[in-house]
TrEMBL record:
SUPFAM superfamilies: alpha-D-mannose-specific plant lectins, Protein kinase-like (PK-like). ATP binds at residue 494. The lineage of its organism: Eukaryota, Viridiplantae, Streptophyta, Embryophyta, Tracheophyta. This is non-specific serine/threonine protein kinase. Residues 332-418 form the Apple domain. Keywords: ATP-binding, EGF-like domain, Glycoprotein, Kinase, Membrane, Nucleotide-binding, Serine/threonine-protein kinase, Signal, Transferase, Transmembrane, Transmembrane helix. Residues 466-631 form the Protein kinase domain. Its EC number is 2.7.11.1. It holds the Pfam family Pkinase.
Length: 631
């Protein structure tokens, strides 16, 4: 009775592995001037038992690289995988910016490897044009390399780790490997430095939560896997000597170590991912174990600061590890309406001394005057002075259980909160005042509903944009994705990126266009603040930007002069409204064809207010600093 079932199972596995073997062939090398298109007619799929698929570009006995996807396969990574029944991605070029069906990978005649979206926009590149590249190779250790005529490495994926470290062959060199070994964009990351390994969380700036410091490293030292350990080696000094930083248990049979989204280092052991020991780090030491603004107890229970207070609530009552949010968000430049919640018997794993030998009041006042400061963390000694830390993001804090034998703790955390306005109102109101008040309240409510943008959650926008898979374009401050809201309306979601100007651009756009409405200005539907991410949600303008029409080589898309005049007048009307009809003047600073959008009827809509400035009517002509697009 079992024979047919066993035969069918065997035959199924035979088909899977024969498909892989047929793709293997093994073709590990590619020449210049080669292009691969992500579609079925160019490269057929190789399927795996877990439902994932890959269009193989290069392959060897153990590793493959190509267009990789899972599930519905609406978006793809250019990735290197260990091919098994359940393949693991060990490196990807575009994990934060997946491409669509029809995207291309080009190894150009000038020696540059480029990934382009269907519309031809650049998604990722090795930036190696003109460096004498002669070909590309996927090595037996899983390293994607560009090499020159002397077979020397021009570029290699081993120098750009994403969230995995391959245990055989990969060497990470401090100061040379330019990218953090990161679990998620802007979340947990691990950096190889000249002082050892540094573990970070977040961004803008990142906070250090663990260090493995090593003495005696120099510019020729590097991190590698040797003798079942991660160690720092320097073969120029001693070929056999390696300073161990992390030991791999003997039972492990893994090919890689992975930095997980929870901050743990894991390796494969008997088919399961298992945590690697990191010194004295315990569960509560991981900054996001309970999420933001939360407290982790000794038995790893998550709670909000002073849950009985009106300042914090759980993000998700059923999942306390998702963190806590402030009921009344902080408002910049409103120190008179802010105060602190004091927490004692607390430790904070990312504490870094920013000011030394100051008193606690100085520390708190510095936080009040700093708009980005979320808390004043004060670590004091035997006297009243101590060290002060002002984090711009407040992660999980750890509460300590005190007993008679435990020494007193010397850290205080003062969380900055916005005062809740008085809810008391006079009961001595006559009927007329009540009617008038109700009428004014209704009008104010209408203004709020109509005029203020909606605050979306990050999950809302992930769903609306199909995990940011429908890219419309890219600008100086980030990428724009097409989305569909729950009410069916089409939107353009601007995903701001970078750390230097992103906050300024975000605040400028929300402040300038969040409360204005004009037929010749693009409408801001809403915004999202999620961890270090900043997103803006605009109405989708169907005809694209003006430059796509006036610079298009397709003569069928030439605009008639009457249409051009209509567009020019629309731009003028929008700018007139901004400059003369608003209560505060709005100076755009970056008017150009790329920032003029056209709707279905070719009405012009001014967009991209990331460099704009609000100016009081009596401020005069004092703005002289150069801004906008150079040239």
């Amino acid at each position: 009775m079992r024979a047919p079932w066993i035969c069918s199972l065997f035959f199924g596995f035979f088909l899977i592995f024969s498909s892989i073997s047929a793709q293997d062939g093994y073709i590990p090398t590619a020449n210049l001037s080669t292009s691969w298109t992500n579609d079925e007619s160019s490269i057929p799929f190789t399927n795996f038992v877990d439902g994932s698929r890959i269009r193989v570009i290069l392959s060897g006995s153990k590793f493959m690289c190509g267009f990789f996807c899972k599930g519905m396969c609406t978006s793809y990574l250019f990735a290197i995988i260990i091919h098994r029944n359940d393949p693991m991605v060990i490196w990807s070029a575009n994990r934060n910016n997946p491409v669509k069906e029809g995207a291309t990978l080009n190894l150009t005649a000038t020696g540059e490897l480029m990934l382009k979206e269907v519309d031809g926009s650049s998604v990722w590149t090795t930036n190696t044009a003109g460096k004498s590249t002669s070909g590309m190779n996927l090595t037996g250790e899983g390293n994607l390399m560009l090499f020159d005529v002397q077979n020397l490495t021009v570029w290699q994926s081993f120098d750009h780790p994403t969230d995995c470290l391959v245990l055989q062959g990969q060497k990470l060199i401090p100061g040379v490997s330019p990218t953090n070994w990161a679990a998620q964009k802007d979340m947990y990351s691990l950096e190889v430095t000249a002082k050892g390994l540094i573990f970070y969380v977040g961004s803008n700036p990142p906070q250090v939560y663990y260090r493995i410091l090593v003495d005696g490293l120099d510019q020729k030292s590097y991190l590698e896997f040797r003798d079942r350990s991660l160690c720092f080696a320097n073969t120029s000094l001693n070929p056999n000597y390696c300073i161990v930083v992390i030991s791999i248990p003997p039972a492990f049979t893994s090919d890689y170590i992975k930095l997980m989204s929870d901050g743990h280092l894991k390796s494969l052991q008997r088919g399961e991912m298992t945590n690697l020991p990191l010194g004295d780090l315990v569960d509560c030491s991981y900054p996001l174990v309970c999420g933001r603004n939360a407290i982790c107890s000794a038995d790893r229970q998550c709670s909000c600061p002073k849950s009985s207070s009106p300042y914090f609530r759980a993000v998700n009552d059923r999942q306390p590890n998702k963190g806590c949010s402030q009921i009344t968000p902080l408002t910049c430049n409103a120190t008179q309406n802010q105060q602190f919640i004091e927490l004692a018997n607390i430790t904070y794993s990312t504490f870094t001394s920013e000011m030394k030998d100051v008193d606690v009041e100085t520390c708190k006042q510095k936080c009040l005057k700093n708009c980005l400061c979320k808390a004043a963390v004060f670590k004091y000694g035997s006297n009243s002075s101590g060290d002060c830390y002002l984090p711009s993001e407040l992660y999980t804090m750890t509460s300590l259980e005190l007993d008679d034998e435990a020494p007193p703790q010397n850290m205080l955390v003062f969380i900055k909160v916005q005062n809740v306005g008085s809810t008391h109102s006079s009961k001595k109101k006559n009927k007329v005042a009540t009617v008038v008040g109700s009428t004014i309240g209704s009008l104010l409510l209408l203004i709020v509903v109509v005029g203020i943008p909606i605050r979306f959650t990050y999950d809302d926008l992930v769903t609306a944009t199909d995990n940011f898979s429908r890219k419309l374009g890219q600008g100086g401050f980030g990428s724009v994705f097409e989305g569909t809201l729950t009410d069916g309306s089409k939107v353009a979601v601007k995903y701001l990126q970078g750390t230097r100007h992103v906050e300024e651009s975000f605040l400028a756009e929300v402040e300038s266009v969040g409360s204005i409405h004009h037929v010749n200005l693009v409408q801001l539907r809403g915004f999202c603040v999620h961890r270090s991410e900043r997103l803006l949600v605009y109405e989708l303008v169907s005809k694209g930007s003006f430059d796509e029409w006036i610079y298009n080589e397709n003569r069928k898309l030439v605009l008639e002069w009457t249409c051009r005049k209509k567009i020019i007048l629309g731009i003028a009307k929008g700018l007139t409204y901004l400059h003369e009809e608003c209560r505060q003047q709005i100076i755009h600073f970056d008017i150009k064809p790329q920032n003029i959008l056209l709707d279905e009827d070719f009405n012009a809509k001014v967009s991209d207010f990331g460099l704009s400035t609000l100016v009081d009517k009596d401020q005069g002509q004092g703005l002289t600093r150069m801004r906008g697009t150079p040239g």
